[in-house]
Amino acid sequence: MNSRKTALWTLAAVGAVVLLTAVGVGLSAGVQAYKRAEARANGENDVRLTHIEISRARQQAKITRAQIAATQANAEKRYQEAVGIRRAQNEIAKSLTSQYLQHEAIQAQKAVATSGRNNTIIYVPSGANGVPLVQDPQNVNRLRPTPPPAQP
What we know:
This protein is mainly alpha-helical and 152 residues long. The chain has three helices and two strands, in the order ααββα. The chain has helices at residues 2-95, 98-113, 140-143; strands at 122-126, 131-135. The chain has a two-stranded antiparallel ribbon. A hairpin with a 4-residue loop joins β1 and β2 (131-135). It starts with a helix and ends in a 9-residue tail after the last helix. The model has no long low-confidence stretch (mean pLDDT 81).
């Protein structure tokens, strides 16, 4: 009976060692498979992130191209406006005479005189045609430069 018990215990011990070894090998294989699956998932995530970054870069490039086109269109518009203003000034300059300017100055003086403002405006004739320099005493301080601060 003793030898039978010993044989059973030995068989149980050998079975336990075999079982523990099988579980260890299985766990080791499972951990390796998990690591491979995790690495594969990380690689797929990296690919997805790269696709997203490429998509964003393409959208940004489209926006940048649109901004450049808008800036160029705005510059062209401003250039055409300047050309139009220059042409208008040339046409006006062809018919602008000193007599017309004197007439306009007189009309401006009349408009100020009849505006109802209760103040004094000083007209000083200057130049060959007597076109006046105008000074408004109430606003004269706005035209003066501010004095520099006193230094100690």
